[in-house]
Design a protein that fits this description.
The chain is of the alpha+beta class and about 160 residues long. The protein has five helices and seven strands; from the N terminus they run βββββαααααββ. Strands 1-5-4 form a three-stranded mixed β-sheet, covered by helices on one side. A hairpin with a 2-residue loop joins strand 2 (about 15) and strand 3 (about 20). The chain is extended.
Length: about 160
């Protein structure tokens, strides 16, 4: 197999109960679709989990949600915004790797891969700004149909 220095090698992990795991499951190789007929380029591996591991992940997610009373849905808006912002910033640090993987895995051009990444970051930024606006507006009393109300929103 030929080595391509500009092809990042990624070994996929899984997130269960707030913990990123690299072990406890099988892996499957991810091959580039580019030049498939002439060369085989392995981009890395992806987790191939059992039903038991998948069930553990679903149980951890249900526990975290806890019917709307878990840590995330009950967390203050500022803390949720800070967590999503930290994720966004860590994602931006990996921009070149992600864009190269988009090129090699699904055949995007370099400009298209960059645009897709940048649109995703912009979507996150827009979502954060909208959450801040909704939180700011939820403190105000509103009148509708002769009824005064204060609307509170909860994350889903």
């Amino acid at each position: 197999m030929l080595e391509f220095p500009q092809v990042p090698k990624i070994d996929g992990r899984i997130l269960i109960g707030g913990e990123l795991r690299s072990t406890g499951f099988e892996r499957r190789e991810v091959h580039s679709t580019c030049h498939k007929e002439t060369i085989d380029v392995v981009l890395g591996t992806t987790p191939h989990v059992t039903k038991e591991v998948l069930s553990e992940a679903v149980s951890a997610a249900a526990k975290a949600w806890s019917k709307g009373l878990g840590e995330w849905p009950m967390m203050q808006t500022e803390k949720r915004v800070a967590a999503v912002t930290a994720f966004r910033n860590a994602m931006v640090e990996q921009r070149e790797v992600v864009c190269r993987l988009l090129m090699w895995e699904i055949g995007k051009t370099w400009p298209d891969a960059q645009n897709e990444f940048d649109r995703t970051v912009q979507y996150i930024d827009d979502t954060i700004n909208e959450v801040k606006n909704l939180d700011r507006d939820s403190g105000r009393l509103q009148f509708s149909g002769g009824i005064m109300a204060q609307i509170r929103r909860a994350p889903l």
